[in-house]
Amino acid sequence: MQNLLLTGIAGFIGAATAEKLLEQGHHVIGVDNLNDYYPIELKEFRLNRLLKNTNFTFYRADIENETEIGEIFTRHRFQAVLNLAARAGVRGSLLKPQEYFRTNSLGLINVLEAMRKHKTGKLVLASTSSLYAGEKSPFAETQSSDTPFSPYAASKKSAETLAYTYHHLYGIDVSVLRYFTVYGPAGRPDMAPFRFIEWMLGEKPMKLFGDGNQSRDFTYIDDVVHGTILGLKDLGYEMINIGCGKNPLSINDLLHLLEKLTGKKAKVQSGPEMLADMRETRADISKAQRILGWKPEISPAEGFQQTVQWHRENRDWLPAIASASERI
Ligand SMILES: NC(=O)c1ccc[n+]([C@@H]2O[C@H](COP(=O)([O-])OP(=O)(O)OC[C@H]3O[C@@H](n4cnc5c(N)ncnc54)[C@H](O)[C@@H]3O)[C@@H](O)[C@H]2O)c1
């Protein structure tokens, strides 16, 4: 049983990971600033589930605030930190690039400094497939990540390199996990899976960027949680892809799958392609298999069925979350 700090606890991946860690008997100390990038009701929904567990402690705190983070490290002794707090999302980063760097890079320095001072030896850092922009897929960790297409990706590149510096200087063991388009129940309302399902169930027009032939390596949340927890292993400093690794789904394929699962017809409105968007993402997951013993178990057909089911069960409040998120 370990004492673990998880930042971004009210977020999609953070909350799901914490739920599993608590189930395994660990103590989880969660930090989140509950910002309003997307509706806070969804973050509170996830948080309320965690608060039922007596091994869980929550701090509403900001990783950009060195004092707040320092105090939490003074109150608890951690065996490891999972830094999932971030400004996430490619489109949002074009509008507020400074915010992305403040949280994703400067915020991480506060976490790393607290780890150094309190001798916390292990960091799991959330990173992204967006770093492979311009590379040929399937993406392997040995490929270049030097041409990010968005401030979001650039801020994650900076986070990865900062973590390396602290590994080199102070021996902090780091697992950098490059996630590939994560989806599932209680997902992010700024991402295509959540939006598309809500638009379809609500019989609303579907706003698409580009022709729908761009494709993503959609990865189910339970598989991502499993990979994240395996990432707690001591590795030195490693970057590891956490992606489905099968044939990626195009946006048009996803629409067809969702039409089947919801029984509704998509009313597509195509808009211009986004320059910050990648054409295709697909993970080479042989490294994750080799060093973590991880491989995804859930097919898109099964994962999207579970996700649609969750949206159906929460019709009383999700449409409001979806419309409030359309501005993102
Ligand atoms: N969801 C994906 O497909 C995906 C893909 C690649 C990488 N990632 C990365 O995985 C991590 C988790 O992503 P997610 O999808 O759960 O996003 P999310 O937005 O749902 O979760 C991030 C959480 O961090 C919190 N947060 C943001 N800034 C903070 C700050 N300054 N201090 C404290 N808390 C703060 C937010 O309130 C939010 O609850 C992020 O680092 C993201 O960049 C996600």
Between the first and last Cα atoms, what is the distance in angstroms? 39 Å
Bound molecules: nicotinamide-adenine-dinucleotide
Number of strands: 13
Average per-residue pLDDT, rounded, comes to 97
Structural class: alpha/beta
Strand order of the largest sheet: 3-2-1-4-5-6-11
Query: Would you identify the CATH H-level superfamily of the largest domain?
Result: NAD(P)-binding Rossmann-like Domain
**Helix and strand run:** EHEHEHEHHEHEEHEEEHEEHEHHH
Contiguous uncertain segments of 5+ residues:
none
Give the biggest sheet.
Answer: 7 strands, parallel
Please report the first level of CATH classification, the CATH class of the largest domain: Alpha Beta
Q: Give the fraction of residues assigned to helices.
A: 40-55%
- The CATH architecture assignment of the largest domain turns out to be 3-Layer(aba) Sandwich
Radius of gyration, in angstroms, nearest whole number: 19 Å
Strand content is: 15-25%
